[in-house]
Fold these 2 entries.
Entry 1:
Amino acid sequence: MAKKLKVLIAASEVVPFAKTGGLADVTGALSKELKKLGHDIRVIMPFYKETKRRKLAIKDTDETLLIEISDKIVQAKICTATIDKNITVYLIENDDYYGRDELYRTAEGDYPDNAERFIFFSKAVLELTKTVNFKPDIIHCNDWQTGLVPVLLKVNENENPFFANTSVVFTVHNLAYQGLFWHLDMPLTNLPWDVFTPEGIEFYGKINLMKAGMVYSDVINSVSKKYSKEIQTPEFGFGLEGVLAGRAADLYGIINGVDYDEWNPESDKFIKKKYSAKDLSGKEACRTDLFSKFKLKDKKNTPVIGMISRLVDQKGFDLIADKIKDIMKLNIFLVILGTGDEKYHNLFKKIQKEYPDKVGIKLGFDNSLAHKIEAGSNIFLMPSKYEPCGLNQLYSLKYGTIPVVRATGGLDDTIKNFKPKTGKGNGFKFSAYTSNAMLLKIKEAVKVYKSGKDWKQLVSNAMAEDYSWMQSAKEYVKLYNKAMKKKSLETLVTV
Ligand code: ADP
């Protein structure tokens, strides 16, 4: 058998401990699949108030970490929990940093000390491995919150034999959030100023923690092939396209999988009645349940368009705002679950008021309702401006809820236009980021829905798709091996 790898997955959110978006789904599910492949997987994340609220089985250990932050020594307790009873999760407890109502921000904006909170966490990642004596082959970092880990490793621990065989893989889940902080936060890192250069972690006079992760890790990847190409262009690179293009030889794309233990209408514990591709009758009961949740009166032959999303510009809500009158002229229902920017909260409150018989809106985060929307809707709308991978279109396929998406990132990689003539395809996608292009595709979907026979074929195609994690987890193992090989070659060159 191939070598069993020791992997530490470091992330700021992991299902079931804390979640604001897809990152948590990915880190939770990927660790389970890697474990199934026989590797020694551990996970590390901050211990948030949100995690405490969830009343999961969490143990205190007697171990503490003492971490240097500028000229202070800050303490954290190590707590542990498990995923699937056999993956150890280290929760870093420091209530000054993480005992807050939200993970990163309130409605007023980001927490002002996010630099310190996540520089601390990145330092804790390396300190923890030493304290619990876990020498990882791979530290798998995710997004800016862990971006400093490879810098600390390469600069401070370069000579440390403990990390002689440790490589870093850095996954970009969303390039729009880069962890940008003013230069006066540099002392918090306790790193020498010579890393604060354009070749290092500096970005237009600021510290950029996403860039830090990209520059210093052994290999980089993103969560779909298309997005890994897109981010090398000015349109999607958010200023980091040059850095990424410069590392193109080490930049990969691996599509996220779906945790079908969580998202499967045959076993979903949140939905009214379970169903499968063979017997879709339960989907009707789920629809009825959805209508009662939103206090809407159902109407025959009328498709329900669902959306579950962070309410931010990325997700294409400006297109919906632009064409809401035309969308509402169609014979449809619209149900939306989301939370985010105030302007979109106001927009949807207004739409709800104007079309109370056709629209259901819930502003908030509600996992159980998310499952009910996947099961009770017919069409799932994702008109994203950009989408690194996107998970809801993949969940929707499994629930026989047909995605209408914009052809970008992972949406483009996973959704194929349905052609009634050939009976092939699993959804609808439009290319130009315009409200007209979106409206045309919604109309096309509604038309096929009404056709009956073609829709049945389309639903059957969608439900037959398999985006289970196993395939992607195997790709990650290949990536880990590449990172290790790269590191050993570098060592040879230096020696
Ligand atoms: P992103 O990571 O950009 O938010 P993804 O499609 O990759 O987008 O993942 C979003 C995840 O978060 C999905 O699991 C989705 O169901 C969930 N989600 C988003 N908003 C909400 C919400 N308001 N309530 C419950 N779940 C949500």
Entry 2:
Amino acid sequence: MNRTPLVAGNWKMNGRKDLLAEMADALAGYAGAAEVVICPPFPYLAAARSAMPETIGVGGQNVSEREDGAFTGEVSAPMLAEMGCGYVIIGHSERRALYGETDAAIAGKFARAQAAGLTPILCVGETLQEREADSTVEVVCGQLQAVIDGVGIAAFARAVVAYEPVWAIGTGKTASPEQAQVVHACLRQSLAENDPDIAQSLQLLYGGSVKADNAALLFAQSDIDGGLIGGASLTADSFIAICQAAE
Ligand code: PEP
């Protein structure tokens, strides 16, 4: 099946108004075939939606698993939707590791995102220790299955999954295209065991030190449908080059 490539930029806690302006200018000239999403920090979401061309998606980097209420510092899914977001990153490894997000909380966030009309970008990935212990597939498929069990496979008809090996995030160490493809194929197989049609249509992204010069080979793999980009999404030139590599 021909899946539309998708490239999403995760700014993390980086970027100011000047980056937004630079990126909006650069993306205004982008007419490629890839779907493009940028995920700036919460305070910039509304400005991003107004500045970006309509064809460019805007997403949050996190969302609360709760309904609106007395949860200081949290942001709900309907708030993201109202600010013009179409996507939200869920279960990034930094949030799992630094903020103790559990699979149950991540499934809750996924459900809230979908109920508000957002497309979740669910991140899964193994640590270096887990890779060295040969448990990569067990870990990443376990993280995926935990959310499938929580929300039901039908919910994945409108979702994106990003495989992000923790050891490759922000380290400059990229999984080789072959290493990444092996894991992507296992993730797609896991999805297929739940629903073959959804497995075929779902966009599976790779993330972890993707740069303009390694993107094309990664994206050429049959089960890699684009990328979730951290550091290289912080300059317009490298981000656009990666979007072009995904076409
Ligand atoms: C990320 O954090 O989602 C990511 C992929 O980061 P980087 O590209 O910087 O490794």
